[in-house]
Amino acid sequence: METCKHYIQDQRIAYFSMEIGLRAEIPTYSGGLGILAGDTIKSAADLNIPLVAVTLLYRKGYFKQEFDQQGWQQERDIQWYPSHHMQLLPSKSLISIENRDVKIQAWLYKVKSPTGGEVPILFLDTDIPGNDDQDRTLTDHLYGGDQDMRLKQEIILGIGGVRILRALNFSIKKYHMNEGHASLLTIELLNSSRVPLEHILVEHNAWNILQVTEQCVFTTHTPVEAGHDRFPYDLVEKIMPPEIPIPLLKELTGQDNLNMTMLALKLSKYINGVAKRHGEISQNLFPGFKIHAITNGIHPFTWCSPFFVNLFNKYLPGWANEPELLVRSSAIPDAEIWEAHCGAKALFFQYVAEKTGTVLNPELLTIGFARRAATYKRGDLIFSNLERLLEIGSGKLQFVFGGKSHPKDDEGKKVIQRIIQHIEKLRGKIDLVYLENYNMEVAGQFIPGVDLWLNNPIRPLEASGTSGMKAALNGVPNFSVLDGWWIEGHIEGVTGWAIGPPAAETDQEVGRADEDLEDMYQKLEKTIIPLYYSDRAGWIEVMKDAIGKNAYYFNTHVMMRRYVTEAYIH
Ligand SMILES: *Cc1c(COP(=O)(O)O)cnc(C)c1O
C-alpha cells in the first residue's frame, strides 16, 4: 500500500479506542476517554514511539449541544468533511454483521510531531456504496444507538480493525485496548491463529490463547461493575460473524452475557487502571487478575495556552518535549506568571462575552467547572445551599460552567438545567454562565482562563480525570474531591485544595454530599477567597506549584514512557 509504506517497516503498537479526540474539527470523541487517546497518540509521535491507532470515523460526530429557552439540552448532528483532514485508503476489509456482508474502509490521518515522529490513525468507515443502507450508517454516531448498534460498532472496531491492519500489511507487536470496547480484537486474533478452534475449547491453556495474551494490553477506565459493556448472547448470536466461536466466548467470559471487560481481562498479559487509586479499585473488582496502575496525563503542548507557551519557552526551553523541565517553575518571575494568566483570562472572558452576552469581571475570583455532565460529577453541588453561597461569595466569586450530557441521560440534562436556572437567581450577586457545546476548542480557552478549577465527583467514580491536569499546566490550581489523579497530585495549600475527607476513608461513599459541601464552603470562605484577594504573592506561589509539582509529572509524555517500559516491551 503506497500511502502506508513507511509505516510498515517497523513493528508497531496497535492502539484501539472507541473514541479519539485530536482537535475540535474532528468530532470523533465525547470526553476524557477520547481526549486521553488523542493525547496518547500525540505524545507517541513526539517521542517517536512506533504506534498505529484504530478508531471509528463518526461522520455525524458525537453531537453539537444547544440549549432551549428552558435550559434543556438539544442535540444536533455535526457536519464535517473527513476528506479535509484525512486520506481514504484504497484497501477494504470485509466482515459479516447480522449475516450481511459489510465492507469497511479506512481513512488515514497522520499525527506529525515537530520532533519528526509520526503516528498514523485509521478511522474505520462503513459508508460505502454496495453496503446495505442500514449498514452504511453504522459508523455515523459515537455512542449513538442502542445495544444492537453498540455491539455492531464494537465488532467493526475490534474485528474489523484487526482485519484492516492486516490488509494494510502492518506488523503488530502489541494490541493495546483503551477500555473494553475494543476487546473483540482478542477473539479475532485467536480466530486467525492456525490451531483448529476445537482444540482451544478442549484445552483452556492452549498455545494460541497464550500467544494472543502475550500480545495484548488492556487499560480499564471504569471503576464500577455496572459501567462495563455487556451483551446478551441472543443478541451476540444474531449479530456476530459466523466464524467467531460463541462457545469459546462463553467459556472465556461467562455463560450469561458477553462481558467485554472480562474478555479483555482474560486475554491480556498486562492490565492497568488509570490512576493509583483506580488501580486498587479495579483490583478489588477483578480479584483474579493482576491490575497495575499507570496514571493518565495530558499532552503538554496541546493544552498549554499561548500565553504560557511563550513563558515556558522563555524560561524553560525544551519543556514541550521534556515536560519534566516544568519542575523548575520557580525560575519564572511572579509578575510574568500573573501577566500570562491575566492574558488567558482576558481572552476567555472576551469569548464568554461573545457567546453569552455576559461580561465577566476580570478582577473577581473565577471558578471553572466543565466536563461531561454525568450525574456522578455533581455539577450543581455548589448551589445546594444558595444562601450560604451568597454569604460567602456575593461580589467575590463568579462561575463559568460547561459540558454535554449524553443524549439519553436525562438526569445529566437536569443537572445542566438546574445550573442554568441559577443564573437568574444569582444575577447581580454572583455572575454565572453556562457555555454551550463544550469541546476541545472551548476547553483550550476555558481551562486556562479561570482562576480555580473545581471538581466534585462522587468517590471513587472519577477513575482519573484529566481536566485538572490541563488547569495545573496553565497555573490554575485545583479545588477537588480526593479522587482519581488528584489523590496523587494534591498537596494541601501547595498545589491546590481538597474537598471533603481523604480517599482512604471513603471507599464506598454515596451520600457524603453534605460533608463535601460543608468543606467546600469552609475552604472557600476561610482559605481560598482570602488568599486570592489579600495575598496575591501567596496565590501565585500556588500557581507555580501547580505547574512545578503537578504539570511536570501528570502528562502523556511521562505516561507513555511508562506504557513503553511497563507494558509494551515485555
Ligand atoms: C479534558 C476534557 C474532558 C475531560 O475532563 P474531566 O474533568 O477529566 O472529566 C472532557 N471534555 C473535554 C472537551 C476536555 O477537554
Strand and helix layout:
Layout: E1 12-17, H1 32-46, E2 51-56, E3 64-67, E4 73-76, E5 87-97, E6 100-112, E7 118-125, H2 133-136, H3 147-167, E8 172-178, H4 184-191, H5 197-202, H6 207-215, E9 216-219, E10 230-232, H7 233-239, H8 246-253, E11 257-259, H9 260-266, E12 270-273, H10 276-285, E13 292-293, H11 300-303, H12 306-315, H13 334-356, E14 365-370, H14 386-393, E15 397-402, H15 410-426, E16 431-435, H16 440-446, E17 452-455, H17 467-473, E18 478-481, H18 486-489, E19 496-499, H19 513-534, H20 536-551, H21 556-568
Parallel strand pairs: 1-2, 1-8, 2-7, 8-9, 9-12, 12-13, 14-15, 14-17, 15-16, 17-18, 18-19
Antiparallel strand pairs: 3-4, 5-6, 6-7, 10-11
Bound molecules: pyridoxal-5'-phosphate.
Residues 31-32, 35, 371-372, 438-440, 443, 465-467, 470 line the site of pyridoxal-5'-phosphate.
Number of strands: 19
Fold-level CATH name of the largest domain: Rossmann fold
Proportion in helices: 25-40%
Shape: globular
Instruction: Note the gap between the termini.
Output: 30 Å
CATH class group of the largest domain: Alpha Beta
Q: Could you give a short account of the major beta sheet?
A: 9 strands, mixed
Q: Which regions have little confidence, pLDDT < 50, spanning 5+ residues?
A: none
Distinct ligand kinds: pyridoxal-5'-phosphate
Q: What is the count of DSSP helices, taking H or I runs of 4+ residues?
A: 21
- Give the DSSP E fraction (strand runs of 2 or more residues): 15-25%
CATH architecture of the largest domain: 3-Layer(aba) Sandwich
Strand-pairing-aware structural class: alpha/beta
> Could you name the CATH homologous superfamily of the largest domain?
Glycogen Phosphorylase B
